[in-house]
Design a protein that fits this description.
The chain has 396 residues and is an alpha/beta fold. The protein folds into 2 domains: 8-33 and 280-380, Alpha-Beta Complex (Aspartate Aminotransferase, domain 1), CATH 3.90.1150; 48-277, Aspartate Aminotransferase, domain 2 (3-Layer(aba) Sandwich), CATH 3.40.640.10. Helix content is 40%, strand content 16%. It has helices at residues 36-49, 64-76, 87-99, 112-123, 136-145, 168-177, 211-214, 243-252, 254-258, 264-302, 325-334, 364-380, and strands spanning 8-10, 13-16, 19-23, 81-84, 103-107, 127-131, 151-156, 181-185, 222-227, 237-240, 314-318, 337-338, 340-342, 353-357. Strands 4-10-9-8-7-5-6 form a 7-stranded mixed beta sheet, with helices on both faces. It has a 4-stranded mixed beta sheet with strand order 1-2-3-12. Helix 2 (64-76) packs parallel to helix 10 (264-302) and helix 3 (87-99) runs parallel beside helix 4. The chain is globular, with a radius of gyration of 22 Å. The structure holds pyridoxal-5'-phosphate (PLP). Residues 86-88, 111, 113, 156, 160, 185, 187-188, 227, 229, 237 line the site of pyridoxal-5'-phosphate (PLP).
């Protein structure tokens, strides 16, 4: 289930060739790609601004940018934010600027786009150290062994493969104690998790304002990078930063000067999406949480292992025998379930399997069908189990 051509879609049902499938591979977590209110907001923006203002941002930008930056700054609770078209644009231009000829401490499982940013930085004179995934003790040792400055610690907020988030309080403390900047990619957390309150509808929290707020951490020595292209279904990304750094990046970060901007339709769906998020995003997050819990409960019932301990809507399932992976993918497809297959070299050999992504636009019928098919796969193939299978004790 890689590189499929989708010919048609109806809600979270998609048609590829002559087969209709339930879609569990979309990252449009809040279901805003199908939200009528958001879709209907677009034509008025196109009438006013045209389809694409083909100036790089430094050449001039529609007032919509200022409007979005102000709204996001308030939502995530920071001094300022700066928009770029994608997270990859941010990583490959901003990480090298932050690191200079200093050091980057990179979580070994950070997203590929962070690694690419670090490689550009290395080409410009930075030193890159890798620490074991989510291992603050290993990071601390590396920080102590190097005196180079400036120093950037880079990792994912919600991990796109494992569906979990590190304890950012621990990493932020290490950053502050070691005069480093903590650079967090929250592509999969923004819009999905948010600040915890006593009247929240579910443990994903409220407002979807990202993993830093969700964990009750502050932004001291922390830069958050996130995008609208997952939960908000719009091609746009941002980073949080002090205003004086924003002024520097406007000149120094190459996409601000040289790249074409996001289309007006994406700016429009971002603005409409932010508005809908404030009014009814928590209801979407409740749906998301409830459906994810149902799938996690089902895996638990079947004793199938998943690294997901968070309740976030990214659920990885692994095959026990790597030879089974293609057949498992085929079985899912033939049973009308569309998921992202984790094949080598996209994941290490011992993590072959598939990833289920749940969005608020899925429904209970689709979730029940998924749960049923998970049971069938578990009978026909060997999936990685939650409890290692014990060898039977020989009867003497
Ligand atoms: C964690 C993470 N970071 C970065 C990216 C790249 O984002 P963009 O498409 O905005 O460049 C992705 C894409 O899926 C991602 O999952």
């Amino acid at each position: 289930m890689l590189d499929a051509v989708i010919d048609e879609r109806y809600g979270r049902r998609i048609r590829t060739g002559d087969r209709w499938l339930f879609d569990f591979a979309s990252s449009s977590y809040l279901g805003f790609d199908q939200d009528r209110e958001i879709i209907d907001a677009v034509p008025a923006y196109l009438d006013r601004w045209g389809t694409q203002p083909s100036w790089p941002r430094l050449g001039g930008g529609p007032a919509l940018y200022e409007e979005i930056e102000e709204k996001v700054t308030e939502l995530v609770g920071v001094e300022d934010t700066l928009l770029f078209p994608t997270v990859t644009h941010i990583h490959t231009s901003v990480i090298p600027l932050l690191a200079g000829t200093g050091a980057i401490f990179l979580d070994a499982r950070a997203h590929r786009a962070i690694h690419d940013g670090a490689m550009v930085a290395r080409g410009q004179g930075a030193t890159v150290h890798h620490f074991r995934h989510d291992d603050p003790a290993h990071l601390e040792g590396l920080l102590r062994s190097s005196a180079i400055t400036p120093r950037v610690i880079a990792l994912d907020g919600v991990c796109s493969m494992l569906g979990s988030a590190p304890d950012l309080g621990v990493f932020a403390r290490l950053a502050r104690e070691n005069d480093a900047l903590l650079y967090v990619d929250d592509t999969h957390g923004f819009g999905v998790v948010g600040e915890r309150t006593s009247n929240e509808l579910c443990p994903l929290g409220t407002r979807g304002n990202g993993v830093i707020r969700h964990q009750g951490e502050t932004y001291e020595n922390v830069i958050l990078v996130a995008c609208f292209s997952k939960a908000f279904s719009s091609l746009l990304a941002f980073l949080t930063l002090p205003t004086r750094l924003k002024d520097v990046l406007k000149v120094a970060a190459h996409p601000y000067r040289h790249s074409d901007p996001s289309p007006i339709a994406s700016l429009a769906t971002t603005i409409a999406g932010l508005d809908v998020n404030e009014r009814r995003g928590d209801l979407s997050r409740l749906d998301l949480y409830r459906m994810t819990e149902r799938v996690l409960d089902r895996l638990h019932e079947l004793d199938i292992y998943t690294p997901n301990r968070s309740g976030y809507p990214l659920i990885q399932v692994r095959v026990a025998d790597r030879e089974d992976n293609d057949a498992v993918g085929r079985y899912l497809f033939d049973s009308g379930i569309y998921v992202a297959m984790d094949a080598y070299p996209l994941v290490p050999m011992d993590e072959l399997g598939f990833r289920i992504q749940i969005t608020a636009a899925n429904d209970d019928e689709q979730i029940e069908q998924l749960c049923q098919v998970l049971g069938e796969i578990n009978e026909r193939f060997e999936l990685r189990q939650a409890q290692p299978v014990r060898a039977a004790v020989p009867v003497t």
